[in-house]
Amino acid sequence: SVSGNSVTTNSEIRAPIFNQENFRLELFPNPVFAGQLNANFTLNKSSKVSITILDLNGRVMKERKDQFSSGLHRLTFDVSDLNAGFYIYQIRTNQARSQIKKFIISN
Prior knowledge:
four-stranded antiparallel β-sheet, about 55% strand
């Protein structure tokens, strides 16, 4: 069957990596004062994940790629070497699903 931009056959039904209704990418604290950014995210199934911190010009400031199991994950990033300002936190799976949040680093 065809729905939206996806095609599903009877022999191939795919569950989403991120639960779109229940998925919450949480970043805290925001703004960041102490040089550490915490991120919580949940995956519905095991997946390769790319996490990127970008500046507002799209330059990659930090990146982490890893395999994560299904479930809730909490990561901590040392951002003490980044200048004060606005940044983008992007999480992307190998299934091309992504979530984006903005955060602020303050001195």
